[in-house]
Amino acid sequence: MECTSSVYLPTCHMGSSIFLWLFLIFSVIFSPVSAKHSVTWTYGVNYGRIANNLPQPESVVTLLKAAKINHIRIYDADHGVLQAFKGSGIEIIIGLPNEYLKEISIGEDRAMNWVQENVQAFLPDTRIRGIAVGNEILGGTTIELWEVLLPAAKNVYSALYRLGLQHTVEVSSPHSEAVFANSFPPSACIFRPDVAPFMKPLLEFFSQIGSPFYINAYPFLAYKNDPQHIDINYALFKDNRGIYDAKTKLHYDNMFEAQVDAAYAALDKAGFNKMQVIVSETGWASRGDPDEAGANVKNARTYNRNLRKLLAKKKGTPFRPKMVIKAYVFALFNENLKPGPTSERNFGLFKPDGSIAYDVGFTGLVPSAAPPSILVSFKEIAGQGWLRWSYLLVSTAWAVVLL
Predict the structure, then answer these.
(1) Using CA atoms, how far apart are residues 259 and 223, in angstroms rounded to an integer?
(2) Which residues contact 38 (CB under 8 A, 6 or more apart)?
(3) For residue 96, what is the enclosing H or E element?
(4) What is the pLDDT of residue 352?
């Protein structure tokens, strides 16, 4: 109703503002993100779960929505996680774990059963957008898995094709830097001679089905292994002299882009100059053993904050300026049960209670500046669910309007 009296004008404006505020909040929180109609994404996060102190998946959805993170990658196809993400609008890459590759490679029927149970059963409400077939297989130590990776990927794709899901769900396989013989300077990068006979047919298949090349790129690991010869500022996106690639006449002021372009150079030499590179893992440890150079909170904050700024620009690399850089940060939480050095258990951006581990631009689940009466704890939201919490918020807003 139109307000004509000056007595009621302030009240109407207050009510309109509150309703507008609520509309905007609920539009962001509850509207699914369309892959086809949304702007190009660049920032995703790996949601690892090798831990015994993490929040329930439903709470993780709440956290991701609060942080406006709409793309994640998990390392399996856990049904509890996939069910929790139903209706969230968050796009997920699921993993076909390494231990299943041999079985899936044997026949299409086994791949079909896996896809039906772990993908088709959750679509379209859970936005599964990719299947990572294995993780860091080529370049690893289990040669038997090298031989079954391609047949497994083909069988998974065949199952998707038969189900009419080949345009909805992408098939890929992330690799470590170990697949390269060298990566400095970027233009000199090539695939290892022993890896190439397995990598090339895999790339031919991925090229045919339109899949990108996924690489786990960690400036942290490079710096940790050679701190005497690598400038820490170069690894952290801070001011530095950078490096010059004489062959391409390109200058790099950070190692991350150099690592991505090294992958592009290797693809070029293998005959796949049109394939896109996507970083499936990157991050920096906030804690490490005494011999793990650079592993501390300050460096982790600097790396992840600057990486987020770089990805937000939605630009390409020096070698591929038209290919927008996309990356999944490792990781959402620290994983206290991971084996290996201390750094392996300290890559998390968030604490299990939903607060930030350190400031990289996220506000955590609930802004600390919010009035105490409005603050709702992470556990309360997780326990009550978004529906009940949203009802409480709407009820509170109505009370304010009526006042």
Answers:
(1) 13
(2) 70
(3) strand 91-96
(4) 87
Tell me if 327 sits within 8 A of 258, measured CB to CB: no
Residues for the chain: how many in total? 403
Burial code (b: 16+ CB inside 10 Å, e: under 16) for 341-379 equals eebebbbbbbbbebebbbebebebbbeeeeeeeeeeebe
- Rg (C-alpha) for the chain, rounded Å, is 23
Residue-averaged pLDDT of the chain: 85
Other Cβ atoms less than 10 A from the Cβ of 42: the count is 18
Name the residue with higher pLDDT: 385 or 145: 145
Q: Which tokens sit at 63?
A: 């956290």
Cα distance between residue 332 and residue 47, in whole Å = 5
**Which are the contacts of 260, defined by CB distance < 8 A and separation ≥ 6?**
215, 217, 277, 279, 317, 320, 325
CA distances from 222 to 103, 225, 371 (A): 35, 5, 45
pLDDT, residue 264, reads 98
Name the CA dihedral angle for 144, 181, 43, 313, rounded to a multiple of 10 degrees.
-160
Q: 90 and 44 in contact (C-beta within 8 Å)? A: no
The residues assigned a catalytic role are 136, 281
What residue type is assigned to position 56 of the chain?
Answer: Q
pLDDT digits (tens, 9 = 90+) for 323-365: 999 999 999 999 999 999 999 999 999 998 888 999 999 977 7
Question: 43-350 has which CATH code?
Answer: 3.20.20.80
- Distance separating alpha carbons of residues 235 and 220, to the nearest angstrom: 7
pLDDT, tens digit, 9 for 90 and up, residues 361-392: 997 774 433 343 333 444 444 444 444 444 43
